[in-house]
Design brief:
Strand 5 and strand 6 form a beta hairpin. The chain is α+β, with helices and mostly antiparallel strands. 17% of the residues lie in helices and 24% in strands. The strands form 2 sheets. Strands 3, 4, 5, 6 and 7 form a 5-stranded antiparallel sheet that branches. Strands 1-2 form a two-stranded antiparallel sheet. The protein has 2 helices and 7 strands. It folds into 2 domains: 48 residues, no CATH class; 66 residues.
Length: 123
């Protein structure tokens, strides 16, 4: 999640995947609390954002995955890096969306094995 300001782009919250209810509520908490309370009372909410190098360290950037491998893909644009919210498969033509088969036409800067999904919490 990011916003533009006169001093540049600010991304107070970075997700490795699609936004869901828990992530949205965490974002709301971070943004609202940071504006409603004095800075000194919320030290944990003002953590330093990771650098591009730190972000790339979690991904393979110097080799392609095996043919037909199912992977998470990290892309980059003029703003920064972002993880695609779906798995991709490596094909001879490039990376494809696993669900739709669509060729990914973005600048891919890294990939990694899919992270195991956490078990859903009972409501």
């Amino acid at each position: 999640m990011a916003r533009a300001s006169t001093s540049g782009v600010v991304a107070p919250f970075v997700l490795d995947g699609p936004i869901n209810r828990a992530a949205f509520e965490a974002l709301q908490q971070r943004l609202w609390v940071s504006h409603l309370e004095p800075q000194h009372s919320i030290p944990d909410l003002r953590r330093k954002m990771v650098t591009r190098a730190e972000r790339l360290a979690d991904f393979t950037t110097d080799a392609d995955p095996a043919s037909q491998a199912l992977v998470e893909v990290l892309c980059a644009d003029h703003v920064g890096t972002y993880l695609l919210p779906f798995l991709c498969r490596r094909t001879p033509e490039g990376f494809r969306n696993e669900r739709t088969g669509e060729l990914i036409e973005r600048r891919i800067v890294g990939w990694r094995e899919p992270k195991p999904k956490a078990a859903a919490r009972p409501r």
